[in-house]
Write a structure and sequence with these properties.
It is built from six helices and twelve strands. It has 197 residues and is of the alpha/beta class. It has a seven-stranded mixed β-sheet. It has a three-stranded mixed β-sheet with strand order 5-6-9. Strands 7-8 form a two-stranded antiparallel ribbon. The longest helix is centred in the last third of the chain and has 13 residues. It starts with 5 loop residues before the first strand and ends with a helix.
Length: 197
């Protein structure tokens, strides 16, 4: 891998464009990923926000579930925001019927924990490992993490709830940093991809 890692954004549903812009600003070569052959060409992957049930069903439809699970299990760096956090969880507290996860982080998440769409909010979040003060997080029907296992490290909390977790090459936030113009988390993830390469 060159000094410019190739980072994909799973482009089945959700705020793909905003992640592509944020990654490009963090000096990554960013590209949408919809098919297994596109997944094979990236050094790391972002799982965007959206609707986690829909995303898992579309991933199955596009033949992506198993390739995604295999790459994540093999250590490919991955960053999930909001619905992406749900996809990375080993367990969902209240899954919709037929909802599957990719796994990768030893955590239990609660869907829509911060409330419905009209209860969306922005908050300043202190994230361990991110310099320069709090990150502005946008919470839209956001999940939170109920609990983490021994392998997972809590890197941010808000209102007494876990909202960011890292486990080896997997990173997850319940909020959307890509909607704020603050690209420090994308830069942090880009560094994770570089280090893994």
């Amino acid at each position: 891998m060159s000094d410019t890692p190739v980072i994909g954004v799973l482009a089945l549903q959700g705020d793909v464009r905003e992640h592509l812009i944020a990654l490009a600003s963090a000096d990554a070569l960013a590209r949408p990923v919809r098919r297994p052959e596109e997944l094979a060409e990236v050094d790391g992957l972002v799982l965007p926000g959206g609707e986690s049930t829909t995303m898992s069903k579309l991933a199955a439809l596009f033949g992506m579930l198993e390739p995604l699970r295999e790459r994540i299990a093999a250590g490919m760096p991955v960053y999930g925001t909001c619905a992406g956090m749900i996809l990375l969880a080993d367990k969902i507290l209240d899954p919709r019927s037929g909802q599957e996860t990719l796994g990768g982080i030893d955590m239990i998440v609660r869907r829509n924990a911060f409330g419905r769409q009209n209860e969306s909010f922005e908050a300043a979040v202190e994230v361990a490992g991110i310099d320069g003060g709090p990150v502005e997080g946008v919470f839209i029907r956001a999940p939170w993490v109920e609990s983490v296992g021994a392998g997972a490290k809590v890197i941010a909390e808000h209102g007494g709830h876990i909202v960011a977790v890292r486990q080896q090459n997997a990173l997850a936030t319940s909020f959307h940093p890509e909607l704020t113009g603050d690209h420090r988390l994308h830069a942090y993830f880009t560094e994770m991809v570089r280090a893994a390469g």
